[in-house]
Amino acid sequence: MLKGFKLIQVYGNASESAMTITDKYFKFNADTAIELGNPNYINMMIDTDGKRIAIVKSDEKAEAAVKFSSPTKEKKNVINVAFKAAHAAVRNLMGWNDDTSYRVIGVSVPEENAIIYNLTQAVALTKKRYSKIE
């Protein structure tokens, strides 16, 4: 009866993390820092085949560590990350060559201290409404 079915693999948990790719940098909501344990540094990784990007908790001594200023407990702010190489790689991969910003919700992978964002699920942010990316 179950011939032809395949086991569904779950690789993460629901996340409150949101990443916005603006025309100049990455913006992460405060929930992102909380889910990663409030790191001061992250590594950014890209999966060009799957069109995904991951951020991983890191430290300043790690290769290619990127400053990730976590918000304080008193003030929940967004976190801006200006990593030009990663930013260009994402926008080129997705063909986003205009000044539109895109938002995508993450999937938390706590055992890896990581959050994965599927760029194919990004939503273009416009002044009037949101539109899903095809």
The largest pleated sheet is described as: 10 strands, antiparallel
Strand/helix succession: EEHEEEEHEEEE
- Give the CA-CA distance, first to last residue: 35 Å
How many structural units, i.e. domains? 1
Counting DSSP H or I runs of 4 or more residues, the number of helices is 2
**Overall pLDDT score:** 86
Low-confidence blocks of residues: none
Secondary-structure content class: mainly beta
By DSSP, the count of extended strands is 10
Proportion of beta-strand residues? 35-45%
Broad shape: globular
Helix content: 10-25%
Radius of gyration computed on alpha carbons: 16 Å
Structure description:
By secondary structure, this protein is mostly beta strands. It has one domain. The chain has 2 helices and 10 strands, in the order ββαββββαββββ. Strands 1, 2, 3, 4, 5, 6, 7, 8, 9 and 10 form a 10-stranded antiparallel β-sheet that branches. The protein is globular.
Q: Can you tag this structure with a few keywords?
A:
single chain; 134 residues; mainly beta; 10-stranded antiparallel beta sheet; 38% strand; globular
Helix and strand topology:
Layout: E1 13-21, E2 26-28, H1 30-35, E3 41-47, E4 52-58, E5 66-67, E6 79-81, H2 84-94, E7 101-109, E8 114-118, E9 123-125, E10 130-132
Antiparallel strand pairs: 1-2, 1-7, 2-6, 3-4, 3-5, 4-8, 7-8, 7-9, 9-10
